[in-house]
Amino acid sequence: MTNDIYDPTYVAALFDRCTNNYRNWSAVSSFGFVRRWRRECVAMLPVNTNQDAVAVDLMAGTGEVWPHLLKRFPTLRTITALDISHKMHVDAVERLHANRADRITHLEANALTSDLPSDYADILLSTFGLKTFDQSQQTILAQQIARILKPGGHFSLIEASDPKGWPLRPFYRIYMDNVLPLIERLFLKGANDFSMIGTYTRNFVNCTHMKKSLEDAGLEVSYQKHFFGCATSVSGKKPIAHNVVAP
Ligand SMILES: C[S@@+](CC[C@H](N)C(=O)[O-])C[C@H]1O[C@@H](n2cnc3c(N)ncnc32)[C@H](O)[C@@H]1O
């Protein structure tokens, strides 16, 4: 087993272990902010998108964003949910989304090398799926996103970030680096898997590298901070006349 925290097999095993507690842990440890940020991520997609659209949810996890997506686009044809963790897919299908199973297509794959067709998605989104990519992987991911989107298609990506410059940042860091790992050790039998998510977030910093990578891949991009930079997002579209940069 590799110790490289950016190796896809390491990441898949980590999220397989996190699956059972992921939903509750992420909601409680963020004081509910993850739910608000998922809603904000979906709200950045223009509502006049073709309502018979095909959506792709990259790093979909247990599909926490789908209720928001289906509320904004009630007639979506399908959501293709791509995730590298087998257990995240199983949990999503069996426990959480049985009532909308006919609208979801599951793809267990690495987002950096997936064989999703080119010009496939009208809408592409990802909530909290960027932090486990280092900068060179983010560049590849941006090229994949540019390839998968239809010309004119829209994307929206949001990630927890390090709010550099915020006066309350020292408290935020103590909470992320000390309090959360302690709670995890006490309540999840000594585990430190969710603490790893804190490490990824610190290394990720914010969406600025992703913004540049998406622009270099030929997309139109806007960058936004959420709650003093505790999350950042990039959203935009693939221009109609677009030359794909090869991954
Ligand atoms: C923090 S969870 C986010 C899940 C969900 N989108 C949400 O809003 O809660 C990150 C997800 O990204 C997936 N992931 C990480 N690296 C990946 C990769 N290279 N390809 C596909 N999925 C990946 C993990 O398995 C995990 O389910």
Verbal overview:
The mean pLDDT is 90. Helices cover 43% and strands 20% of the residues. It is globular and about 50 Å long. It has a single domain, classed as 3-Layer(aba) Sandwich (Rossmann fold), CATH 3.40.50.150. A hairpin with a 4-residue loop joins strand 6 and strand 7. It is α/β, with parallel strands linked by helices. Helix 1 packs across helix 4 and helix 5 packs across helix 8. The protein contains eight helices and seven strands; from the N terminus they run H-H-E-H-E-H-E-E-H-E-H-H-H-E-E. A seven-stranded mixed β-sheet has the order 3-2-1-4-5-7-6, sandwiched between helices. Bound molecules: S-adenosylmethionine.
Shape-level CATH architecture: 3-Layer(aba) Sandwich
| End-to-end separation | 27 Å
What number is the mean pLDDT? 90
The general outline is: globular
Number of domains: 1
CATH superfamily: Vaccinia Virus protein VP39
Strand sequence of the main sheet, in spatial order?
A: 3-2-1-4-5-7-6
Helix content: 40-55%
Structural class per helix/strand content?
alpha/beta
What is the CA-based Rg, rounded?
17 Å
Strand residue content: 15-25%
Low-confidence stretches: none
Count of individual beta strands: 7
* Hetero compounds: S-adenosylmethionine
The H/E string reads: HHEHEHEEHEHHHEE
**Total helical elements:** 8
CATH fold description: Rossmann fold
**What top-tier CATH class fits best?**
Alpha Beta
